[in-house]
Amino acid sequence: MLKKLNNYFQRLGKAFILPIALISVAGIFLGIGSAFSNPNVVANIPFLGNKFLQTIFVYSRSIAGALFNNLSILFAISLAIGLAKDETAISGFSAFVGYVILNITINTVLTSNKMLATAELMRQSGQGVTLGIQTLELGVFGGILVGMVVAALHNKFYNIKLPDYIAFFGGTRFVPIITTFTLALIGLIIPIIWPPISYGIQMVGFGIANLGYFGTFIYGLLERLLIPFGLHHILNAMFRFTPVGGEAIIDGKTIVGALNIYFAQLSSPNTQAFSTEATRFLAQGKIPMMVFGLPAAAYAMYKNSKPENRNRVKGILLAGALTSLVTGITEPLEFSFLFAAPILFIIHAVLSGFSFMLNSMLGVAIGNTQGGVIDLVVFGMMQPNTKWIVTLLMGIAYAFIYYFAFNTLIKKMNLKTPGREDVSVSEGAGISVDKDMESKAAEIIQYLGGKDNIESVTNCFTRLRVVVKDMNIVEESGFRNTGASGVIKPSKTDIQVVYGPSVSQIKVAVSNALKSAN
């Protein structure tokens, strides 16, 4: 039971990737548009006041705003697709149908019970408008619920066989049909059970808020510690998009979730300063660690590698450091020392918690999600009253702390970080990162035990996620020859190979190779 639950949460974490990736990019456009249309910025840089340029900035803000205003349905569709075993397009279509049916049903219940609030009282009544339907303000929770329910229905019924006289409605056609009936029933129940659930969620958020700076530290610590299990996306989604991450009234509208609050303020022309209660769970806590700390740790590992291995590990560590610095994606670098030296990862997680806490204590207000240098520039330096200089100075201090901590512990404890392994290059410790995708895919399939041992192949931001039939025939040590920086085995049939940001191209190459073999 526990293994099944763990596997499900692994898949759930992966399913969150698609909307989060879109939100990250949309946030950058929103940040640039907001910064360059800010009256103070335009006053200092007059050419930005050009009508054509301002039209572009307003246009980019409008597009990004539309995405953030429809997060619920984006999550519903992406989770239904991400959790579906096969015929994923049908699952996504059914999620849209289910989302509409759920909210139409809730609207019908509210109307029949004369509970539909007027426009003036809508916010106080916990109601809102989605896709033109006045309904309960379920937020992203509504989308997550729909996505999970539809995926479960899809996996159970997408290949159902019905009697000949109604066979036309069988198979994949049955999924949106059963979705309609199921979500209609859930829509009848939601108006009864949602108020206490919503209250409970708010109490959790208030509880974390009452922990003050210690609560921020715990969040930053857990955000790192959950990375090896692939569950950090679930923690992040809870704080970014639900009342757990806070609640605020912006331009007369109630906004819940740290990231939602930040982007609503970013879009508002009335914003003079950003809510530090929201940004304490966002990019600002990551910047000192991602832009400064981890690159310094990579340099410490390089300096402590064996002289004969430095050329081999230089490319790996440099690529990991640059990826962390620019994009805020840390897994390729973290997995280079996670299993070889767990004590370093624990120290890294604790330092991450302190980074979140200190930024909050010092009143920094830098939002978005990634934490790389792009976030520092776009959401820190380019926005008003963010105190980005505090994060910059903290980052410089973090560079020295990370270097000293890693350098000292590697030497004193003789930790087997990259380049210090007891295996020589000739024994297979080398990494071939220049291979073309076809040959790399062929090797990956070989190390996975061959095509007959592979049941499914997917990916998240940095990991190739594979379900295999027999883990005993998987050649785990061979993956480093394909450029992998780490391997995780969450269960007896699930294996995750860490490749970094290029993993999506590797996944496509592996999938194509499997199709060709078949």
Question: What tags apply to this protein structure?
Answer:
518 residues; alpha+beta; Gyrase A, domain 2; four-stranded antiparallel β-sheet; two-stranded antiparallel sheet; 20 helices; globular
Description:
By secondary structure, the protein is of the alpha+beta class. The chain folds into three domains: 2-201, no CATH class; 276-413, no CATH class; 433-517, Glucose permease domain IIB (Gyrase A, domain 2). It has helices at 2-15, 17-36, 39-44, 51-69, 71-83, 88-112, 140-157, 174-210, 213-225, 232-241, 258-267, 276-279, 287-303, 310-327, 331-334, 342-361, 373-381, 388-413, 437-447, 503-517; strands at residues 127-130, 133-136, 247-250, 253-256, 454-459, 463-468, 486-488, 494-498. The strands form three sheets. It has a four-stranded antiparallel beta sheet with strand order 5-6-8-7. β5 and β6 (463-468) form a beta hairpin. α9 packs antiparallel against α16 (342-361) and α19 (437-447) packs across α20. The longest helix has 37 residues, at 174-210. It is globular and about 75 Å long. It starts with a helix and ends with a helix. The model is unreliable at 423-434 (pLDDT under 50).
